[in-house]
Every structure is written in structure tokens, then in C-alpha cells.
Design brief:
Elements: H1 8-22, H2 26-29, H3 33-40, E1 45-54, E2 60-71, E3 77-83, H4 89-106, E4 112-117, H5 126-140, E5 149-153, H6 159-173, H7 196-211, E6 221-224, H8 229-240, E7 244-245, E8 247-250, E9 253-257, H9 265-276, E10 290-294, E11 307-309, H10 319-327, E12 332-334, H11 343-356, E13 362-364, H12 366-369, H13 372-386, H14 392-417, H15 428-447
Parallel strand pairs: 3-4, 3-5, 6-7, 6-11, 11-12, 12-13
Antiparallel strand pairs: 1-2, 2-4, 8-9, 9-10
């Protein structure tokens, strides 16, 4: 009997990578890479610690803090910090594992890691969040640095939390360095960073639409889940490019367009205000254009859409919802969240792609489609190293170039390692997985990490 605790999220992420590698010609051409897969699937280091902080009533509270430093073959560990009651090692290992290959696809010098705590910022005062962040960083500061490990924000970690943590790091280590990304613009942050994941997702899908011969975003109906940064800025960019957004959601329910209605810029701005106050979508008094559906995700409620962008959390598109999207005529689905689709949902999309060829739905995994956020984090690191700040236009252009390169790399790698029949669109999940894995494995080989 195994003594290892079950880690379902991590096991799912590993299985997705393993299946795509096994179903390609990679191991036939390079059988030694099987050894690399064994090595890369084990974190270089896992740090677990207690976080003791005082609430406003003067009571001591205790949470578990973590940092999974998964792989540093391509550069310093890079990945977000998540503050949420659901945080555990399985979730952080899955996120860190995905982050290795996502970061590789950006072309920047970044390894993969992830961290956080089972602390819930919702319902906490600013003072309580500050005390928690300072206590959390007092321990984490021993293990990170600008050339070692550079965390960023994730669920539950906004600019406010990054500010508290950066201040704590500066005081503890007596250093002002680019140790966190997502910082304030006056003290080392980068323009476009809040928008980067959502904007990058739309830039990536633009290349999918163009290559598939489906024109551009003009007139496309787009279903989006989530209502945080990724969903907000993806929605704004879609609207800017002429698309119609028909949904947003949070963990409690969904806002879905009624009839010919749509999510407007004004709706998104109002949702941004709610999220700053950490309030649910159910408190938004939508006009006649939207209805709130309690306890539901949007996918089976949006009728026909051209593009689906899961931007909330892991496993938010099930097999049944995947079938509903296919039945509704969806042509493109790309993950703005990490591992947004279950393995069963991905199987639905990939089977459709193989059977219906150019007429099928085309799926893009999060490690490629949502790499824009960490890409601009990497650009923030570069700006910090130079003690410079780039213009909005320069950062945005670099983001566009990175997303184009990530798309092209996954596309071409799929063509090289996965058999295609005539008229069949290449598998972006296979191509992205293989491309990211090979880049990391080759670096590890050259470092002597496996042989």
C-alpha cells in the first residue's frame, strides 16, 4: 500500500502531459526523454511553514504557508502566490508543474514554482490582511530573491497584498530588489501587468481564428467565465476588437446575457468595483441585458457562442459542458485559467478536432494561451534588473510578440511530432506540452540533472 497522499490535481496535470508525450512520436525519436519526465515531475524543493498572525480581536490565528520550487533549469523559480482556503500541496504542485512549461513557452529565462497559504482574504480587514502578509513573508523571505525565486500574485493576491509582502521583504532582508512582480508602478511594477493575462489570451486566440480562416473578432459571440483580472481584461479586449461578450461568473454563479443583450464596458467596470470590495457578482444589479444564475457556470446557459474562454479556476469545464459547447457551435476554446478543462473535456475537444477537422472546435491549453501574465512578469523582472520602466506601448508589443511565438511554437511542434490527416488542425495541447517539455528537459540534460 502506498504511503503517498493522493494529489488529484497534480496527478491530473501530470497525466495530461504524459498522455500527450506518449501519443506523439517524441519518445520514439528520443527514448531518453522518458528519464527526463521522471525527473521533472518531482519538485526540486518544497517549503512548508506555519503563519501565525493576530486578528482585529487580538486572537492568534494559524495558517499553513507553502512554496513549491519545482524547476529552475531555465531561470529563477517563477509563479504566483495563492491565498484561498482550498490551497494544499496537490493544488500548488499542479500549478507549479504547469508553470514550468508555461514559462518555457514564453521564451524568457524563468523556472517554475508556486506558493501560497490556506488563508481566506474575504471578510478580513486591511489590518488583518497586512498582519497576515507580513507574517507570511517573514518566513518566505528566507527562501526567495531576485536571482532565486520571484513570486507574483494569484487568486487572493492583488496589488494590495503584493505591497504588504514587498514591504515586509524589504524590512526583513534590507534589500530593495525585484523579488516580487505585480508591484506598484512607483516602486518597480510594469505597465500592462494587470491586463497581461487577459490581453495575452485574446492575442493568442486571434492567431487561432486567423489560421482557421475564421476572420477576426468582429461579430464573434464570446462566453467568458470568471470575473477577476483575467476575465475582466479579456472581456474588455474582446469588446475593443468588435466581439460580443455574453457572460461572466464567480464561484457562486453566473451573469449571462438575455436575448440580444451583452456584457458592456459599463458592466465590467461595475464588476471591477465589486471585486475590489471582494463582493460576489450576485450583488450586481444588472440591467435587462443580463440575468444572474445562482450556482451555475455559464457554459450550458449561453446558447450559441463562437469562442469560449474559461478564466476562473481549474476544472471549470466538464465533459458535459464540453459537449454542450460543441453542440452550440463553439469553434474556439482557450484557457485563461490554469487547467480550466477536465481531461474528459479535453478528450471531447480533441476527438472533435480529429473527426471534423477544419470544421471542429479548436482547443488551446492554459500553459500556452494564458502565459501572457507570467510573460509580463518576466518583463517586469527585466525592467527591474535595468532599473528602467518601459512604456505601455513597448510592453504591449512585447506581449503580442511573445503570444505569437508561443502559438507558432506549439503549432509547429505539433506538426513535427503528431500525425495529421489532411485538413486537420494541429493539436495545440500536444504541441505546447511537447515544446515546453523538450526545452526544459534539454536544459536539464545540459546541466547534468539527468543523463
Amino acid at each position: 500500500m502506498s504511503l503517498l497522499v493522493s494529489e488529484p490535481e497534480f496527478e491530473q496535470a501530470y497525466k495530461e502531459l504524459e498522455l500527450t508525450l506518449e501519443n506523439s512520436s517524441l519518445f520514439k525519436k528520443n527514448p531518453e526523454y522518458r528519464t527526463a519526465l521522471k525527473v521533472v515531475s518531482v519538485p526540486e524543493r518544497i517549503i512548508q511553514f506555519r503563519v501565525v498572525w493576530e486578528d482585529d480581536a487580538g486572537n492568534l490565528q494559524v495558517n499553513c504557508g507553502y512554496r513549491v520550487q519545482f524547476n529552475s533549469a531555465l531561470g529563477p523559480y517563477k509563479g504566483g502566490l495563492r491565498l484561498h482556503p482550498s490551497v494544499n500541496l496537490s493544488i500548488l504542485k499542479f500549478l507549479g508543474f504547469e508553470q514550468i512549461f508555461k514559462n518555457a513557452l514564453t521564451g524568457l529565462m524563468m523556472g517554475g514554482g508556486k506558493g501560497g497559504a490556506d488563508f481566506d482574504p474575504k471578510g478580513k480587514s486591511d489590518a488583518e490582511i497586512r498582519r497576515f502578509c507580513c507574517s507570511f513573508m517573514r518566513e518566505l523571505s528566507r527562501h526567495i530573491g531576485a536571482d532565486t525565486d520571484v513570486p507574483a500574485g494569484d487568486i487572493g493576491v492583488s496589488g494590495r497584498e503584493i505591497g504588504y509582502m514587498f514591504g515586509a521583504y524589504r524590512r526583513e532582508r534590507n534589500k530593495f530588489e525585484g523579488v516580487l512582480t505585480g508591484k506598484g508602478l512607483d516602486w518597480g511594477g510594469s505597465l500592462i501587468r494587470p491586463e497581461a493575462t487577459g490581453f495575452g489570451l485574446v492575442y493568442y486566440v486571434t492567431h487561432m481564428i486567423e489560421l482557421a480562416g475564421a476572420g477576426n473578432w468582429e461579430g464573434k459571440r464570446v462566453a467568458i467565465s470568471g470575473s477577476g483580472n483575467v476575465a475582466q481584461y479579456a472581456a474588455l479586449k474582446c469588446i475593443e476588437l468588435g466581439a460580443t461578450v455574453v457572460s461572466l461568473s464567480d464561484s457562486k454563479g453566473s451573469l449571462v446575457a438575455v436575448g440580444d443583450g451583452q456584457v458592456t464596458v459599463e458592466d465590467i467596470e461595475a464588476v471591477m468595483g465589486l471585486k475590489v470590495k471582494r463582493k460576489p457578482l450576485s450583488e450586481y444589479a444588472a440591467k435587462d441585458n443580463l440575468k444572474y444564475i445562482d450556482g451555475a457556470r455559464p457554459w450550458i446557459h449561453v446558447s450559441q457562442v463562437d469562442v469560449a474562454l474559461p478564466c476562473a479556476t481549474q476544472n471549470e469545464v466538464s465533459r458535459e459542458e464540453a459537449l454542450a459547447l460543441v453542440a452550440g457551435g463553439t469553434k474556439f476554446i482557450a484557457e485563461g485559467s490554469n487547467m480550466g478543462c477536465t481531461l474528459e473535456a479535453i478528450e471531447v475537444f480533441e476527438n472533435e478536432r480529429r473527426q471534423k477537422k477544419g470544421e471542429a472546435i479548436w482547443y488551446a491549453p492554459g500553459k500556452a494561451a494564458n502565459c501572457g501574465g507570467v510573460a509580463v512578469s518576466g518583463l517586469e523582472m527585466s525592467q527591474n534588473s535595468q532599473r528602467l520602466a518601459w512604456s505601455k506601448e513597448e510592453v504591449d508589443q512585447r506581449l503580442k510578440d511573445i503570444m505569437k511565438n508561443a502559438f507558432t511554437l506549439g503549432l509547429n511542434t505539433a506538426k513535427n511530432y503528431v500525425d495529421l490527416s489532411e485538413g486537420e488542425l494541429p493539436s495545440l495541447v500536444a504541441g505546447s506540452n511537447i515544446a515546453g517539455f523538450v526545452k526544459v528537459a534539454q536544459a536539464m540534460l545540459e546541466h547534468g540533472d539527468w543523463w
